[in-house]
Amino acid sequence: MYARIIFVLIVMSCSVCAQTEIPTLNADKPLEFTIPTSAAFDLLGVTPAQVTKPGNIRDFKVDWSFASWRLKPNIAIQAQPIWEIFYNRANLQKYQGATKWMKLLSTLDVSAGTIEDDNQLRRLAIAAKITLFRSHDPMDEPDLLRGATERYYEQRQELINVQQRLSDSLQRLPTTSEYLEIRMTVLQQAQALETQLTMLEKLQKQTISTLANTYLKEHWNASFLDVAVGKSYNYQKDQLDSLNLQQDGVAVWVNGCLGLGRKWLMTGMLRFTQVNIPHRPNTQELQGGLSIRYGSPKFNFFVEVLNRDRQNLFRFQSVTIAYGGDWRFGKNVMLSYGVRTVYGQRFSFKQLVPVASIACMMR
């Protein structure tokens, strides 16, 4: 009988000693206001909205695009290498203490994507994008979680101090049989404190998650200004020994958005592209567009106008009017959809193009 009690005491004592090392708090951090389209897909023109929302990702992301009911190999991969290497830590103090230049560089993201167009031609694009301005940075808001974090550590330290006193008294108690009941009482109190520490940590994670989600919802339409550059290629899909890449375009573009109130977002885009078509002289193309969105971080809807011309954006010879929306049905997954109506000279109707895409953060 005494042997069993002593065994239980040993196990409970080890548990109390282990609890003196408090585990690291790995609560969810506020990450991105929205899940933006990869610059590679933006360059290839297979996104539901061609006047895309600017924004940052804080992890790896995969995009799939569908321009018809037939499954096509339209996929893009996106990442932020500088953020991933230097600042993707549980503790944000390193990032929050970084210089403005390094915070700017941390927004650099690179992407690559491949599609198959309606003519069965496969195209590949690589692109890089950087954010020059953002009105809010969810990773650089030390006051957002400071109060809750300070209260958590104060409460945790009080429980640790009580638990340490119980552990010290336990070590001073004699191990003889007449003190076994007292030792069991002390260990039960220590176990209760261990449960309180676990519940306190769980409650803190929920509190941080709630604060972060509230902050993201309030600023989902934050203002951004992005600059991107990319190249596109076409290649032969039946070549076994080589892709035979042929560059068909180089582009640079600016993409900015302005939040209006809590539900509106106005976005503009200006792109310059040098088009390279085999056996033809190189041509230049200008694209400009405006978009207005209404909604929330979970659901929002847009209407956009995009004009494309070789020389003058105010000469409306190829205009696209599109409408659609985004549905963020999970923290890491977003479905986007849109319908484009393409008009030629004198706004003569030419084409109707439905497009859908899925963006998935790889967390």
Report on this model:
α6 packs antiparallel against α7 (180-218). The protein is built from 7 helices and 12 strands. Mean pLDDT is 81; it is low at 1-27. It is elongated and about 95 Å long. A 12-stranded antiparallel barrel has the order 1-2-3-4-5-6-7-8-9-10-11-12. It is α+β, with helices and mostly antiparallel strands and 363 residues long. The two termini are 51 Å apart. 31% of the residues lie in helices and 35% in strands. The longest helix has 39 residues, at 180-218.
Give the helix/strand class. alpha+beta
Assign a percent range to the helix content: 25-40%
Q: End-to-end span in angstroms?
A: 51 Å
| Sheet of most strands | 12 strands, antiparallel, barrel
Shape annotation: elongated
- H/E order of the elements? HHEEHHHEEHHEEEEEEEE
Strand order of the largest sheet: 1-2-3-4-5-6-7-8-9-10-11-12
Give a concise summary.
The protein has 363 residues and is an alpha+beta fold. It starts with a helix and ends with a strand.
Helices, strands, pairings?
Blueprint: H1 2-19, H2 39-44, E1 61-66, E2 75-79, H3 81-87, H4 93-96, H5 100-105, E3 109-116, E4 122-134, H6 142-172, H7 180-218, E5 224-235, E6 246-260, E7 264-275, E8 283-295, E9 299-309, E10 319-327, E11 333-343, E12 349-361
Antiparallel strand pairs: 1-2, 1-12, 2-3, 3-4, 4-5, 5-6, 6-7, 7-8, 8-9, 9-10, 10-11, 11-12
Helix pairs in contact: 1-7, 6-7
